[in-house]
Write a structure and sequence with these properties.
globular; 9 helices; 34% helix; alpha/beta; two-stranded antiparallel ribbon
Length: 258
């Protein structure tokens, strides 16, 4: 034991030994980030948009969903009134066609908190499911897309998705709180691992957390977005202001995001 104690005092480990994956090709937090064009052509966006509205032949759609999909198809063709869910679907579709795995979990993420997303639909007669973003093959090879409705076990679900980002940094991994208060039981994961993991263990993560609801007066459990808890994930030092001499905007974004 004495020898082990002395050896521990002299031990010098390598930082990468603490990281689940080596994240080859990723910049370190201290490196200057690079910017490159991320846009795609309008023609491709329209093709993806059409796929977001295209149910299989013989699929028994809900009448309300029929109206929603027709409106979405019209908006995409005209390039006007593109709502959040449509823009989100277009972005995810373009990433999938570029080979990026996209996954989202949370309460009712398939239909969306506001019944706006509907990335997974169900046949009204037999209950069969269809996922628009898993059927883009006519446009080219695509990466897997996963949308899973989770039970009210936010601590476990957010922890799983965080671990997924450790091992698959090239994927877009999203956890969505249906209401801000649903983040309550996930707060331990946010405090102990997400906001502090890089400082404590040099462990980077590309996890994206969405908070769709605000102060809407829907009772004790659904009234607060808890926006302060999400803001705490930005900029651990309010006095750390990037230099104005070189690319202030990009440096500010990099400094203020974990």
């Amino acid at each position: 034991h004495e020898e082990a104690f002395e050896a521990a005092d002299k031990y010098k480990g390598k930082s990468m030994q603490w990281i689940a994956t080596k994240w080859e090709g990723f910049a370190k937090p201290t490196d200057e980030g690079k910017s490159s064009p991320t846009g795609v052509s309008i023609d491709l966006l329209k093709k993806i948009g059409n796929k977001l509205c295209e149910a299989p032949e013989g699929f028994n759609l809900h009448n309300g969903l029929k109206r929603q999909l027709n409106k979405k198809r019209s908006d995409i063709e005209e390039g006007a009134e593109i709502d959040w869910a449509t823009a989100e679907g277009l972005a995810w579709g373009s990433l999938l066609l570029e080979g990026t795995h996209v996954r989202i979990t949370g309460q009712d993420v398939q239909s969306g908190t506001f019944a706006h997303r509907h990335c997974v639909i169900r046949d009204q007669k037999n209950g069969d499911q269809f996922c628009f973003l898993s059927n883009l093959q006519e446009l080219g090879p695509q990466a897997p897309f996963i949308a899973r409705n989770s039970i009210l076990a936010e601590y476990a679900v957010l922890g799983f998705e965080l671990g997924y980002t450790y091992e698959n940094p090239h994927a877009l991994v999203i956890w969505e709180a249906q209401f801000g208060d649903f983040a309550n039981t996930a707060q331990v994961m946010i405090d102990q691992f997400i906001s502090a993991g890089e400082h404590k263990w040099l462990q980077q993560t590309g996890l994206t957390m969405l908070l769709p609801h605000g102060y809407e007066g829907q009772g004790a459990e659904h009234s607060s977005a808890r926006i302060e808890r999400f803001l705490q994930l930005c900029d651990d030092d309010e006095d750390d202001i990037p230099s104005f001499k070189r690319d202030f905007g990009r440096s500010q974004i990099q400094k203020a995001n974990w």
